[in-house]
Amino acid sequence: MPLSVQKLASRLTFRQLQVFKAVYQQHSYSKAGELLGLTQPAVSSQIRQLEQAIDQPLFEYVGRRLFCTAAGERLILTIDSIFTEVNNLQTDLAALQGNVAGELRLVAVNTAQYVVPYLLRAFLDLYPQVSIGVKVVNRAAAIQRLNDNSDDLVIMGMVPTEKPLASLPFLDNELVPVVPPGHPLLQQGTVSAQTFLDANLLMREQGSGSRLALETHCQNQRLKVQASMEIGSNDAVKHAVMAGLGVAVLPKLSILPELQLGHLQLADVSGFPLRRSWCVVYPQAKHPTPAMRAFIDYVQQNIKQLEQLFMRRSAFPR
Question: Could you tell me the CATH superfamily of domain 100-166+278-314?
Fold first, then answer.
């Protein structure tokens, strides 16, 4: 006979639900323990107490693999709803007190990861009760997350025009041509864009925003662009250039230390640098949470200060 709501509620704890969700997501008792700062026996004890409370097995081992039972699959849906409501309660209670609180889920494309920390520092000083999570992905993944409405805000460049998205441009994203010290192009003064592109061009993978910006520019200027090597991150491209494998077009803010130390050099290339903007982006139909609205307002009100901050950081002798 099913347990009454009162009796079931008296036997459940939020900690048990939290532990169950961690095991469910990690597919492992030990990994869940590492995530929560618990020993594996402590995790096992919490799951055992939860199973006793609902009188159903939640996990089972087949061979050495951990699987969730049908009861566990049903439970995770309820847990997600409970935690969502608790988060909404926290936000609403803070709003009643005139405070902004709750969770703010941000996604940043790879090129924007160097900017986001500077956005967050002053914002968190203003709104210390906001809890922020940041995921860093490439542009293709960011667009997919926008389609899925997985996050609150996405920070990216080259906002898709075919989608109903709201966007707030807030900072220049300067893409610069770089070469290793001593590269022959440095001795030639201003070189044509095609000459630079033909000098063993290193490029990001398909789906990268910086690659798309370069390819779009080359298409508009009728330039031939062919990667001599595709590399999966800006940091890896940067190190490949320093190792002498070729040349690249990279976001300036991502390579400031290397430029200042002379490990990379800016090439004088006709038509460069490329200038795009980083934008705060979200679906137009999305209803902003208080934390989301506070962040958008904060960025909008501090565009000039952000520009000045990054101008100072990027100012150094060429």
Answer: Periplasmic binding protein-like II (3.40.190.10)
